[in-house]
Design a protein that fits this description.
It is a single chain. 72% of the residues lie in helices and 0% in strands. The chain is an all-alpha fold. The model has no long low-confidence stretch (mean pLDDT 81).
Protein backbone atom coordinates (compact mmCIF):
# COMPACT_ATOMS: atom_id res chain seq x y z
CA UNK A 1 0.00 0.00 0.00
CA UNK A 2 1.25 3.47 -0.86
CA UNK A 3 1.92 5.93 1.85
CA UNK A 4 0.03 9.19 2.02
CA UNK A 5 3.22 11.06 1.04
CA UNK A 6 3.50 9.05 -2.18
CA UNK A 7 -0.16 9.59 -2.96
CA UNK A 8 0.28 13.32 -2.34
CA UNK A 9 3.31 13.40 -4.70
CA UNK A 10 1.30 11.77 -7.48
CA UNK A 11 -1.59 14.13 -6.80
CA UNK A 12 0.72 17.18 -6.99
CA UNK A 13 2.31 15.78 -10.14
CA UNK A 14 -1.14 15.29 -11.69
CA UNK A 15 -2.08 18.85 -10.76
CA UNK A 16 1.10 20.16 -12.45
CA UNK A 17 0.27 18.21 -15.60
CA UNK A 18 -3.31 19.51 -15.59
CA UNK A 19 -2.08 23.06 -15.05
CA UNK A 20 0.35 22.69 -17.96
CA UNK A 21 -2.36 21.27 -20.21
CA UNK A 22 -4.79 24.04 -19.32
CA UNK A 23 -2.16 26.69 -20.02
CA UNK A 24 -1.34 25.03 -23.32
CA UNK A 25 -4.99 24.80 -24.32
CA UNK A 26 -5.60 28.42 -23.35
CA UNK A 27 -2.68 29.51 -25.54
CA UNK A 28 -3.95 27.38 -28.42
CA UNK A 29 -7.39 28.95 -28.07
CA UNK A 30 -5.91 32.46 -28.09
CA UNK A 31 -3.80 31.69 -31.17
CA UNK A 32 -6.80 30.15 -32.91
CA UNK A 33 -9.03 33.10 -32.05
CA UNK A 34 -6.41 35.56 -33.33
CA UNK A 35 -6.03 33.61 -36.56
CA UNK A 36 -9.77 33.63 -37.15
CA UNK A 37 -10.02 37.34 -36.45
CA UNK A 38 -7.07 38.15 -38.70
CA UNK A 39 -8.45 35.86 -41.41
CA UNK A 40 -11.83 37.58 -41.39
CA UNK A 41 -10.22 40.96 -41.91
CA UNK A 42 -7.99 39.70 -44.70
CA UNK A 43 -10.60 37.69 -46.59
CA UNK A 44 -12.26 40.81 -47.90
CA UNK A 45 -8.97 41.87 -49.50
CA UNK A 46 -7.83 38.52 -50.92
CA UNK A 47 -8.73 36.93 -54.21
CA UNK A 48 -10.06 38.26 -57.43
CA UNK A 49 -12.83 40.82 -57.34
CA UNK A 50 -16.28 39.40 -57.96
CA UNK A 51 -17.63 40.02 -61.42
CA UNK A 52 -21.21 40.01 -62.67
CA UNK A 53 -20.10 38.44 -65.95
CA UNK A 54 -17.82 35.60 -64.84
CA UNK A 55 -16.36 33.11 -67.26
CA UNK A 56 -17.47 29.75 -65.99
CA UNK A 57 -17.32 27.67 -69.19
CA UNK A 58 -14.23 25.82 -70.36
CA UNK A 59 -12.97 25.18 -73.88
CA UNK A 60 -10.00 22.96 -74.51
CA UNK A 61 -7.83 23.61 -77.56
CA UNK A 62 -5.10 21.52 -79.12
CA UNK A 63 -2.40 23.81 -80.46
CA UNK A 64 0.99 23.45 -82.03
CA UNK A 65 3.88 25.16 -80.29
CA UNK A 66 4.06 27.94 -82.90
CA UNK A 67 0.33 28.67 -82.48
CA UNK A 68 0.69 28.89 -78.72
CA UNK A 69 3.68 31.21 -79.08
CA UNK A 70 1.68 33.40 -81.46
CA UNK A 71 -1.15 33.75 -78.92
CA UNK A 72 1.36 34.46 -76.15
CA UNK A 73 3.15 37.10 -78.25
CA UNK A 74 -0.12 38.84 -79.12
CA UNK A 75 -1.30 38.78 -75.51
CA UNK A 76 1.97 40.35 -74.32
CA UNK A 77 1.79 43.09 -76.96
CA UNK A 78 -1.86 43.83 -76.14
CA UNK A 79 -1.23 43.50 -72.40
CA UNK A 80 -4.15 41.07 -72.14
CA UNK A 81 -4.58 37.55 -70.91
CA UNK A 82 -4.48 34.79 -73.49
CA UNK A 83 -8.23 34.29 -73.09
CA UNK A 84 -8.91 38.00 -73.63
CA UNK A 85 -6.57 38.02 -76.62
CA UNK A 86 -8.40 35.12 -78.25
CA UNK A 87 -11.78 36.75 -77.52
CA UNK A 88 -10.56 40.04 -79.04
CA UNK A 89 -9.53 38.18 -82.19
CA UNK A 90 -12.91 36.44 -82.41
CA UNK A 91 -14.74 39.77 -82.00
CA UNK A 92 -12.65 41.37 -84.76
CA UNK A 93 -13.28 38.38 -87.03
CA UNK A 94 -17.03 38.64 -86.37
CA UNK A 95 -17.04 42.37 -87.24
CA UNK A 96 -15.18 41.58 -90.46
CA UNK A 97 -17.63 38.82 -91.36
CA UNK A 98 -20.63 41.03 -90.57
CA UNK A 99 -19.23 43.77 -92.82
CA UNK A 100 -18.95 41.33 -95.76
CA UNK A 101 -22.70 40.62 -95.73
Amino acid sequence: MKSSVEILRFFIYDIKILKFLLTFLQLQYIIFAMAIKRGDEMNAKLGRPKSDNTRNKNLSLRLRQDELELIQECSEKLNLTRTDTIMEGIKRLKVELDNKK
